[in-house]
Amino acid sequence: MTFFLLSIDTPTNLTLQRLPDQLMSQQIYINGEYLSKDDAKISVYDHGLLYGDGIFEGMRIYGGKVFRLNEHLDRLWESAAAISLKMPLTIEALASDLNECVRRNGHDEGYIRLIVTRGSGELGLDPFRCSNPQVIIIADKISLYPQELYDNGLELVTASTIRNHPAALSPRVKSLNYLNNVLAKMEGLQAGCKEALMLNHLGQVAECTGDNLFIVKSGRLMTPSKEAGILEGITRNAVIQLAKEAEIETLELALTRHDIYTADECFLTGSAAEVIPAVKLDGRIIGNGTPGPVTVKLNEAFRALVRS
Ligand code: PMP
Fold first, then answer.
1. Cα–Cα distance between 118 and 87 in angstroms, integer?
2. CA 197, CA 216: separation in Å to the nearest integer?
3. How many other CB atoms are found less than 10 A from the CB of residue 46?
4. 28 near 136, Cβ under 8 Å?
5. Which atom in ligand 1 lies closest to the alpha carbon of residue 174?
6. Could you read off the pLDDT of 240-283 as tens digits, one per residue?
7. How far apart are the two ends of the chain, measured CA to CA in Å?
8. Per-domain residue ranges for the chain?
9. Any idea of the CA torsion for 140, 49, 74, 71, to the nearest 10 degrees?
């Protein structure tokens, strides 16, 4: 939604000016209440803070609407079930609150961080003694990567930190415990790369720290399967669907770094990053070192999808 200031120079001269975004105060939702950024606070005894005990989603707002809202909420409910967190409201109520939060914050294009914490408890792990899970919705702006990287492609490095073993903490749970990814991200940044590749406990390609990974080889699209221990990205699924519609053969399978080094093209997907080309891994140039035709085609198809 765009906000306008109606200014009247003379009784017959009405002009509409767009209000600068800074003039609109951000309203953060906590358990049904709307609070300013400074007043939006939760207890220091919340196990979301104490132990990373909670779950979250990151979603995009396009044209004032939440992209793939149902899919995000289904994934949130799955994460909740996986950690035995009883959601304090129904999926329909949360969907309606999310839409209302977007409306109040007036973002036509933006990002939503939805968080559900375990709630307040004692200074001990026991989640069963926690009460009052906090449902938090932050609708804000996001710009993860500069345009230059969409035009020319990202450089990746393989992190030595492997992705969480699925039997320890399944990467399919989008939990507040993101230290695994944070440590790998740190390695990437220290090596001068904005994203880092994470392998799984078998040495296979899993995903990047906040994005799923695809390669193109001889016209076929390939991406690690869920069994590789990845987050099943909403953008990943949208891109797989778009590829099928474009009659691009798509395989979900086990990949190694060799497959990336020898691929024709590589790109990453995520709600924040959307579709972004990757042109280098561990100093090796992928394909001809520029965003390839399949990447460009799928990026355009994704842009058209989110605008539709
Ligand atoms: N993998 C990880 C580890 C992520 O955190 C994310 C989300 N940032 C993704 C993949 C991409 O998922 P989605 O397309 O649903 O944003």
1. 9
2. 17
3. 20
4. yes
5. 5
6. 999 999 999 999 999 999 999 999 999 999 999 999 999 999 99
7. 17
8. 20-140, 147-307
9. 30
Quick one: tokens of 52? Answer: 């990373």
Q: Are 54 and 175 in contact (CB under 8 A)?
A: yes
Catalytic residue (choose from 41, 65, 141, 174): 174
Task: Supply the CATH classification number for the domain 20-140.
Answer: 3.30.470.10
Q: Is 37 a catalytic residue?
A: no
182 CA → ligand 1 middle, Å: 13
Nearest residue CA, atom 4 of ligand 1? 210
The amino acid at residue 36 is: S
Please, which residues have CB within 8 angstroms of residue 47's CB and are 6 or more apart in sequence?
53, 54, 117, 118, 119, 120, 121, 127, 130
pLDDT, tens digit (0-9, with 9 covering 90-100), for 132-164: 999 999 999 987 799 999 999 999 999 999 999
Residue type, 200: N
CATH 2.60.120.560 fits 147-307, yes or no: no
Residues 95-111, mean pLDDT to the nearest whole number: 95
Q: Is 181 in the pocket of ligand 1 (CB under 6 A)?
A: yes
**What is the pLDDT averaged over residues 113-125?**
97
Q: Which residue has the tokens 């392998």?
A: 199
Name the β-bridge partners of 269: 212, 275
**Which tokens go with 276?**
């972004």
Amino acid of residue 135: V
Task: Using alpha carbons, select from 144, 185, 178 the residue that is nearest to residue 60.
Answer: 144
Output 128-135 pairs: Cβ under 8 A, ≥24 positions apart. 130/47, 130/53, 132/31, 132/88, 133/54, 133/85, 133/86, 133/87, 133/88, 134/30, 134/31, 134/42, 134/46, 134/48, 135/29, 135/30, 135/31, 135/32, 135/88, 135/89, 135/94, 135/97
Residue corresponding to tokens 């709630």:
119
Beta strands 195-199; 154-158: pairing state: parallel
